[in-house]
């Protein structure tokens, strides 16, 4: 995708992260979101269009709960408030 000059956006990343979560690969989903966020914070043009939103956190929280990672899900949920993200009715 990037080789053809197309920049992935939030929807693209959310889909990839959701795919990992659906097959139980929550660790890979979290790693992907951290990698993309780190690259964005480094001002790397490759991931400049991606910013984590409540949707991506909702996807990861759902995956964590479904794979029995309840303690980690609670920690992530609590961390949303420090990121200026407010959980909504979907979470």
From TrEMBL:
Top-rank taxon: Eukaryota
InterPro entries to which the protein is assigned, alphabetical: PPR_P_subfamily, PPR_rpt, TPR-like_helical_dom_sf
PPR-type repeats, residues: 9-43, 53-87
Keywords, sorted A to Z: Repeat
Record bears the keyword Cell inner membrane: no
Family membership noted in the UniProt record: Belongs to the PPR family. P subfamily.
Protein name: Pentatricopeptide repeat-containing protein
Organism annotation: Aquilegia coerulea (Rocky mountain columbine)
